[in-house]
Amino acid sequence: MTELSPAATAAAAGTTGFKAPGTTPDKTPRGYTPGLAGVNFGVYLALLTPVLVSMAFKVQHITDSTEEATAQLGLIMGVGALFALIANPLAGRLSDRTTSRFGMRRPWILGGTLVGLGGFALIGVANSVWIVLIAWCLVQTAMNAVLAAANATLPDQVPVSGRGKVSGIVGLTTPLGILAGSFLVNFLSDDFARFVVPAAIATVLAVLFVLVLKDRRLEEKPAQRFTIGQFFGSFVFNPAKHPDFGWTWLTKFLVMFGYAGIATFLPFYLTEKFGLDEQTAISTILAANLASMVAMAISGPLGGVLSDKIGKRRPFVAIAGGIMVVGLVVLAFAPSVPVVLVAQAIIGLGAGSFMSVDLALATQVLPNPDDTAKDLGVLNIANALPQSIAPAIAPGIIALGAATPLGGYTVYYLFGALVALAGAVLVYRIKGVK
């Protein structure tokens, strides 16, 4: 590719409306930060509302029994999460090589959102579990492509000195999306609206972001071909060579496994154990999510600040994991709905601190300073993979637990507590960090 002078680069960028590759503005473009936050909020609203509430009831409406619904929900969520795990980094890599005249990221953001909207509509009208499964995999692929492409604009649009602030604002969109989805579903009475309305909001926000984004434009594809082996090879590390990083990965995986299975099956837990009707269960989930998010908002910054001040990470990770274990045990034996809310608050208290301190710990054990993004991608697998495995094996554990005096869901949440406890203990196998 011919290299342009600074003056020519500025002229080209000014005449085309696109940022030239390899350049970063002196200040964040107007409208970029709210646009990026908006598209992230929309994606999380569309994706997490089914995970937390609407998918469980959708599957219940098209199956013949609670046992069948539980098994099919685990299948749908487990397989869908695998598609998400692959789609996010793959779409990010492909957007880096996109030479569209509309820019590198905008086609993926707009196209992914429109495909996702179609997938959500298909789920809304589906009367077969297999159609729901296929459509959910399509949705996970499309919406994760949107996330990958949208967030890849950050280094293109924001100076280094401002990226922390923008990332912090974007980070708030996950809990806001959870709360907004839980609130919105209270006013939507049918399956079609519960899936399409959040997706439509996400589409509008994505369109607004595409309109304000002055996207990079790649004139020529990179000379090196992008292969499947190259893609999967970039997410491999040697735990024998980097044991601290390996133990960090395992700790995150185990603790997040205990955390990942809570939300998906909470609707069934509430309706089966406490006899709540569908609308009351939805309202209870809203209250539970609110309690959890408030606790996370308190413990996340507090845990990070205290670990910085004291200069130790491992005790905070272990304590945070232990708090989550307590919350899971309380949830498992909850005698009433108010105790469920208390349990969710306890779990949120531990999760907020764990996520903030665990990330700080992870940055101190990365194998290669030159491959930070790749290594953080490996850690993201430990965060995302439990979201596939936990729902997939949950129906079997619940079915086995149903044959015991404790009951299926009690056994399931106790199993999650034991796995999370193992993660909290194993953090002390990390030797390079206090």
UniProtKB/TrEMBL annotation:
Residue span of region Disordered: 1-31
Cited Pfam families: MFS_1
Segments traversing the membrane: 36-57, 69-87, 108-127, 133-154, 166-189, 195-213, 249-270, 282-304, 316-335, 341-366, 378-403, 409-428
Subcellular location: Cell membrane
Signal peptide: none
Domain of life: Bacteria
Positions of the Major facilitator superfamily (MFS) profile domain: 35-434
Biased composition (Low complexity): 1-25
Gene3D superfamilies recorded: MFS general substrate transporter like domains
Membrane topology term: Multi-pass membrane protein
UniProtKB keywords: Membrane, Transmembrane, Transmembrane helix
InterPro entries for this protein: MFS, MFS_dom, MFS_trans_sf
Annotated protein name in UniProt: MFS transporter
The organism of origin for this protein: Microbacterium jejuense
